[in-house]
Amino acid sequence: MTTLLATERIKLLTTRSPWWSALAALALTTGFALVLALNSSKPAELEVSQTQFGYQFGLMVVLVMAALAVTTEYRFSTIRATFLAVPNRTSALLAKTAVVAVLSTLIGLACAFGSLGVTAVVLPEAPLGLSSAEDWRVVLGVPLVFAAASVIAMAVGILVRQSAGALSLLLAWSMLVEQLVTLIPNVGQDIRGWMPFAMAENFLFGPYEERPLGPWASYAYFAGVAVALLAAALVVARKRDA
C-alpha cells in the first residue's frame, strides 16, 4: 500500500492541475475574506466564523480538482495501465482517493488560516483569537470538509468517468440543487437540512437549533455520505471494464 500511495502522489503532483487548484482555492477564499474585512463596519464585533465564509469558493475548486484526478485517467486510458499494474482495483482507487484527500486537507488548512490571517492583518482590532473550542472547530473544520468533499468528488468521478459529466453533477448539486429544494412547499427546508453539503455548512456555522443534527453529528453524516458513495463507486469499478 505504501508503494501505491507513493505512486499516486507522484502521478498527482507531477501535473499542473493540483498546483493551480491550490492557488485558486487559496486566492478565492482569502480574497473573499479580504473583501469582507475591508467592508466591515464593526470590526470589534467580528467573529472567527465570519472569516471562513468564503470556504465555499475553495470547496468548489477542490471538487473540480478531485474529480479531474480520476476522470482524466479514464479520458486518456491511463487507468488501464494502473489496473494492469495493480489488479486489485480497490487498492489502487483507495490509494488515489487517500492522496487526493490529504492534498485537499492541506489546501483547506491553507485556506482557513489564510482567511483568518488576512482578516487579522486588515482588522488588527478584531477579536480573532482562537479562544474557544467553537473557534477551533470552525477553522479546522474547513480542511475536514474539504477532505470529505474530495472523497465525494472522487466517487462521482469513478462512477461517471467523464470529466464534463462529473463536474456538472458535482457543481450543480452543491450550488443549485440543494438550494432549489427549498422551493418545495412545506417540506423544502426540512429536505435541505438532510442534504450533504447543507450538513457540512451546519457543521461549520449552524444554526444548530434549526437543524436536525449538532455540529459533529452533521460532519459524521457528511463523511458517511462520502464513504457510502466511495464504497458504491469501488463496487462498480470492480465489475465493469476500465
UniProtKB/TrEMBL annotation:
<feature type="transmembrane region" description="Helical">
    <location>
        <begin position="53"/>
        <end position="72"/>
    </location>
</feature>
<feature type="transmembrane region" description="Helical">
    <location>
        <begin position="20"/>
        <end position="41"/>
    </location>
</feature>
<keyword id="KW-0472">Membrane</keyword>
<protein>
    <recommendedName>
        <fullName>ABC-2 type transport system permease protein</fullName>
    </recommendedName>
</protein>
<feature type="transmembrane region" description="Helical">
    <location>
        <begin position="138"/>
        <end position="160"/>
    </location>
</feature>
<keyword id="KW-0812">Transmembrane</keyword>
<keyword id="KW-1133">Transmembrane helix</keyword>
<feature type="transmembrane region" description="Helical">
    <location>
        <begin position="93"/>
        <end position="118"/>
    </location>
</feature>
<feature type="transmembrane region" description="Helical">
    <location>
        <begin position="167"/>
        <end position="187"/>
    </location>
</feature>
<feature type="transmembrane region" description="Helical">
    <location>
        <begin position="216"/>
        <end position="237"/>
    </location>
</feature>
